[in-house]
Amino acid sequence: MVEVQVLDVRRRLAEEGLASRHFVVLGEVGGERRFPIWIGEAEATALALHLERVSMPRPLTYAFAAQVLTAAGGQLREVRIDRLVGDVFYATAVVAGPEGDREVDARPSDALNLALVLGAPIRASADVLAASGDCAVDEWSRRDELTDGAAVIAAQATAGWDEDAQKRRADQDVD
Protein backbone atom coordinates (compact mmCIF):
# COMPACT_ATOMS: atom_id res chain seq x y z
CA MET A 1 0.00 0.00 0.00
CA VAL A 2 1.20 3.49 -0.90
CA GLU A 3 0.22 6.53 1.14
CA VAL A 4 -1.81 9.04 -0.87
CA GLN A 5 -3.50 12.32 -0.09
CA VAL A 6 -6.46 14.26 -1.41
CA LEU A 7 -4.95 16.91 -3.65
CA ASP A 8 -8.16 18.50 -4.89
CA VAL A 9 -11.76 17.91 -5.76
CA ARG A 10 -12.89 19.19 -9.12
CA ARG A 11 -16.09 19.71 -11.05
CA ARG A 12 -15.91 19.04 -14.75
CA LEU A 13 -18.03 21.70 -16.36
CA ALA A 14 -21.06 20.70 -18.39
CA GLU A 15 -20.36 20.69 -22.10
CA GLU A 16 -22.03 19.52 -25.30
CA GLY A 17 -25.25 18.55 -23.55
CA LEU A 18 -23.47 16.58 -20.82
CA ALA A 19 -24.10 17.31 -17.15
CA SER A 20 -21.26 18.43 -14.92
CA ARG A 21 -19.37 15.64 -13.13
CA HIS A 22 -17.17 15.64 -10.05
CA PHE A 23 -13.92 13.89 -9.25
CA VAL A 24 -11.41 13.78 -6.46
CA VAL A 25 -7.71 13.86 -7.29
CA LEU A 26 -5.50 11.63 -5.15
CA GLY A 27 -1.73 11.94 -5.21
CA GLU A 28 1.10 9.81 -3.93
CA VAL A 29 2.70 11.32 -0.82
CA GLY A 30 6.31 12.13 -1.67
CA GLY A 31 5.81 10.98 -5.26
CA GLU A 32 4.48 12.15 -8.58
CA ARG A 33 1.69 9.70 -9.32
CA ARG A 34 -1.85 10.97 -9.16
CA PHE A 35 -5.22 9.68 -10.23
CA PRO A 36 -8.88 10.73 -10.35
CA ILE A 37 -11.93 9.01 -8.94
CA TRP A 38 -15.33 10.15 -10.21
CA ILE A 39 -17.67 10.88 -7.28
CA GLY A 40 -21.12 12.32 -6.66
CA GLU A 41 -21.89 16.00 -6.27
CA ALA A 42 -22.81 15.83 -2.56
CA GLU A 43 -19.62 13.93 -1.69
CA ALA A 44 -17.53 16.34 -3.79
CA THR A 45 -19.09 19.34 -2.08
CA ALA A 46 -18.36 17.86 1.35
CA LEU A 47 -14.72 17.25 0.33
CA ALA A 48 -14.43 20.80 -1.03
CA LEU A 49 -15.83 22.32 2.17
CA HIS A 50 -13.31 20.34 4.22
CA LEU A 51 -10.36 21.12 1.96
CA GLU A 52 -11.23 24.81 2.07
CA ARG A 53 -11.67 24.65 5.87
CA VAL A 54 -15.19 26.07 5.75
CA SER A 55 -16.66 26.28 9.24
CA MET A 56 -20.15 24.80 9.35
CA PRO A 57 -22.86 26.00 11.73
CA ARG A 58 -24.05 22.39 12.20
CA PRO A 59 -22.22 19.09 11.61
CA LEU A 60 -22.53 17.69 8.12
CA THR A 61 -23.01 13.96 7.49
CA TYR A 62 -19.33 13.00 7.69
CA ALA A 63 -18.69 15.04 10.84
CA PHE A 64 -21.76 13.38 12.39
CA ALA A 65 -20.53 9.91 11.36
CA ALA A 66 -17.11 10.69 12.85
CA GLN A 67 -18.72 11.77 16.14
CA VAL A 68 -20.83 8.60 16.26
CA LEU A 69 -17.77 6.43 15.58
CA THR A 70 -15.83 8.16 18.35
CA ALA A 71 -18.76 8.01 20.78
CA ALA A 72 -18.99 4.26 20.18
CA GLY A 73 -15.33 3.87 21.11
CA GLY A 74 -14.15 3.38 17.56
CA GLN A 75 -11.29 4.86 15.59
CA LEU A 76 -10.71 5.07 11.86
CA ARG A 77 -7.22 3.56 11.50
CA GLU A 78 -6.94 4.05 7.74
CA VAL A 79 -8.74 4.16 4.43
CA ARG A 80 -7.57 1.92 1.63
CA ILE A 81 -8.36 2.41 -2.03
CA ASP A 82 -7.75 -1.24 -2.69
CA ARG A 83 -9.40 -2.31 -5.92
CA LEU A 84 -10.20 -1.05 -9.38
CA VAL A 85 -12.62 -3.19 -11.35
CA GLY A 86 -13.22 -1.75 -14.80
CA ASP A 87 -13.58 1.93 -14.00
CA VAL A 88 -15.05 1.41 -10.50
CA PHE A 89 -12.84 2.02 -7.46
CA TYR A 90 -13.43 0.19 -4.18
CA ALA A 91 -12.40 1.28 -0.71
CA THR A 92 -12.05 -0.28 2.70
CA ALA A 93 -12.24 1.60 5.98
CA VAL A 94 -10.19 -0.08 8.70
CA VAL A 95 -11.99 0.63 11.97
CA ALA A 96 -10.63 -0.17 15.43
CA GLY A 97 -13.29 -0.85 18.00
CA PRO A 98 -13.76 -2.47 21.38
CA GLU A 99 -13.68 -5.92 19.74
CA GLY A 100 -10.65 -5.28 17.54
CA ASP A 101 -10.07 -4.09 13.99
CA ARG A 102 -12.76 -4.52 11.36
CA GLU A 103 -12.62 -3.88 7.64
CA VAL A 104 -15.69 -2.07 6.34
CA ASP A 105 -16.51 -1.93 2.62
CA ALA A 106 -17.08 1.66 1.52
CA ARG A 107 -17.45 3.89 -1.48
CA PRO A 108 -14.18 5.79 -1.92
CA SER A 109 -15.96 9.16 -1.68
CA ASP A 110 -17.47 8.30 1.71
CA ALA A 111 -14.27 6.78 3.08
CA LEU A 112 -12.18 9.75 1.88
CA ASN A 113 -14.55 12.26 3.47
CA LEU A 114 -14.45 10.39 6.78
CA ALA A 115 -10.64 10.13 6.60
CA LEU A 116 -10.32 13.89 6.10
CA VAL A 117 -12.65 14.68 9.00
CA LEU A 118 -10.78 12.32 11.34
CA GLY A 119 -7.26 12.86 10.01
CA ALA A 120 -6.82 9.18 9.17
CA PRO A 121 -4.21 8.02 6.65
CA ILE A 122 -5.27 7.14 3.12
CA ARG A 123 -3.51 4.42 1.17
CA ALA A 124 -3.87 3.02 -2.34
CA SER A 125 -2.77 -0.41 -3.46
CA ALA A 126 0.14 -0.59 -5.86
CA ASP A 127 -2.20 -2.34 -8.32
CA VAL A 128 -4.64 0.58 -8.22
CA LEU A 129 -1.83 3.07 -8.74
CA ALA A 130 -0.46 1.06 -11.66
CA ALA A 131 -3.88 0.61 -13.27
CA SER A 132 -4.87 4.25 -12.87
CA GLY A 133 -1.49 5.52 -14.04
CA ASP A 134 -2.80 5.61 -17.58
CA CYS A 135 -3.82 9.27 -17.24
CA ALA A 136 -1.49 11.25 -19.44
CA VAL A 137 -0.21 14.65 -18.28
CA ASP A 138 -1.78 16.46 -21.25
CA GLU A 139 -5.13 14.82 -20.47
CA TRP A 140 -4.88 16.25 -16.93
CA SER A 141 -4.19 19.74 -18.21
CA ARG A 142 -7.24 19.49 -20.48
CA ARG A 143 -9.32 18.45 -17.48
CA ASP A 144 -7.93 21.33 -15.47
CA GLU A 145 -8.95 23.81 -18.18
CA LEU A 146 -12.49 22.47 -18.11
CA THR A 147 -12.93 22.19 -14.35
CA ASP A 148 -13.55 24.17 -11.21
CA GLY A 149 -11.59 23.28 -8.09
CA ALA A 150 -12.44 22.96 -4.41
CA ALA A 151 -12.35 26.71 -3.75
CA VAL A 152 -14.99 27.45 -6.40
CA ILE A 153 -17.16 24.49 -5.37
CA ALA A 154 -17.04 25.51 -1.69
CA ALA A 155 -17.73 29.19 -2.50
CA GLN A 156 -20.75 28.28 -4.60
CA ALA A 157 -22.03 25.87 -1.94
CA THR A 158 -21.86 28.57 0.73
CA ALA A 159 -23.06 31.50 -1.40
CA GLY A 160 -25.97 33.17 0.28
CA TRP A 161 -25.31 31.68 3.73
CA ASP A 162 -24.88 35.10 5.32
CA GLU A 163 -28.17 36.33 3.86
CA ASP A 164 -29.93 33.12 4.92
CA ALA A 165 -28.58 33.42 8.48
CA GLN A 166 -29.69 37.06 8.68
CA LYS A 167 -33.15 36.13 7.43
CA ARG A 168 -33.47 33.31 10.00
CA ARG A 169 -32.41 35.69 12.79
CA ALA A 170 -34.93 38.28 11.61
CA ASP A 171 -37.68 35.63 11.46
CA GLN A 172 -36.81 34.50 15.01
CA ASP A 173 -36.99 38.11 16.25
CA VAL A 174 -40.50 38.42 14.84
CA ASP A 175 -41.74 35.29 16.63
Helix content: 40-55%
Number of helices: 7
Reading the helices and strands in chain order gives EEEHHEEEHEHHEHH
Task: Estimate the mean pLDDT confidence.
Answer: 84
Low-confidence stretches: none
Fraction of residues in β-strands: 25-35%
Cα radius of gyration in angstroms: 18 Å
Number of strands: 8
Distance between the termini: 57 Å
- Assembly classification: single chain
- Coarse shape: globular
Describe the largest sheet.
Answer: 8 strands, mixed
Give me the secondary-structure category. Answer: alpha+beta
Please supply descriptive tags for the structure shown above.
single chain; 175 residues; alpha+beta; 8-stranded mixed β-sheet; 7 helices; 8 strands; 33% strand
Task: Describe the fold and architecture.
- The protein is of the alpha+beta class and 175 residues long.
- 41% of the residues lie in helices and 33% in strands.
- It has 7 helices and 8 strands.
- It has helices spanning 41-51, 61-71, 108-118, 126-132, 137-145, 150-158, 161-174; strands spanning 2-12, 21-28, 34-39, 75-85, 88-97, 100-106, 122-124, 147-148.
- Strands 1, 2, 3, 4, 5, 6, 7 and 8 form an 8-stranded mixed beta sheet that branches.
- Strand 2 (21-28) and strand 3 form a beta hairpin.
- Helix 1 packs parallel to helix 3 (108-118).
- The termini are far apart.
- The model has no long low-confidence stretch (mean pLDDT 84).
